[in-house]
Amino acid sequence: MEPITPPRLNLARLPTPLVPLRRFSEKHKVPTIWMKRDDLTDTAASGNKLRKLEFCVAQALEEGATTLITSGAVQSNHCRATAIVASQLGLRSHLILRGKSSEHPDGNLLLDELVGANISFVSGADFKELDRVVEDISNQYRQQGEIPYAIPIGASDEIGLWGYIEACRELKSDFTSVNINPGFIFSAAGSGGTAGGLILGNHLYQLDTGIMSFSVSENEAYFVDKVSKDIQAWRERYKYDININDLEVNIIGGYVGPGYGRADTPVFDTIRDLARTEGILLDPVYTGKAFHGLMTELSLGRFTTSSDIVFIHTGGIFSLFPHKDQLHAG
Ligand SMILES: Cc1ncc(COP(=O)(O)O)c(C=O)c1O
Prior knowledge:
This protein has twelve helices and ten strands.
């Protein structure tokens, strides 16, 4: 049976640049770190989420959706990107955010409001029953004659995986044009879709590299299970005849720090260091934590066998602002 090609929208500015961090790499005496600037997929709806939404929202439109429903933490980059994309396409958006509303919204939440997303704030306990909450809200829209389409947390499902599968096609051509053969590609893992897509894309486009994902939230076992299930569902839906046992899910734990969404001083120091050395801005929830994890691993002599390595900058700039107190302190 022929594999199935998914529908896709053109939302992101692609290809994104792949740039060497020469000053930073030399300063720290590590292999040359190349940064894939997926923070530049767009100005406002930026980051890795836009690559995934090209496929998830295309599917939603194919099913006639008028309202996009999705969920995440109060400062979710994914929810902000989904809300902005909905407005771009003349759709409604409804965000289910874990946490409390604020009289002084900041960062992503401020942007959610600005683009007119409807927002339900839910407690941690209710968020554990997210499927039911999504179904209740979807039913409310159906009763109003709307067609809701629910995108999972982080757009990390078998459809969203396509975002980073196709990013690997782009990376393959990047590597040819700058003539490198990186030994490893690193990124942050929050809901697992970037990792899953990269693992599949590495295999399909024969990048012949190691895909290493730094957890910023759950433990390693959680991600191995989540990513493996997403890949299995992708294989079944799109009828790709690949042997799942050929794929390695490499999750690096130990860098969550004080918890999801919270960072400690060394992460803020790394964010400052990169900002001052290269003029590139990381965020404390995802990219800063993962990049700090990478620098720690390199200082321990790990992943140094290859002269070139790649870090995917997956965005997140707006969540710098709610952490202004810790950033300002330095
Ligand atoms: C800026 C940023 N980087 C990385 C990630 C992690 O990607 P994924 O959810 O695909 O694991 C996310 C979202 O979770 C994000 O918002």
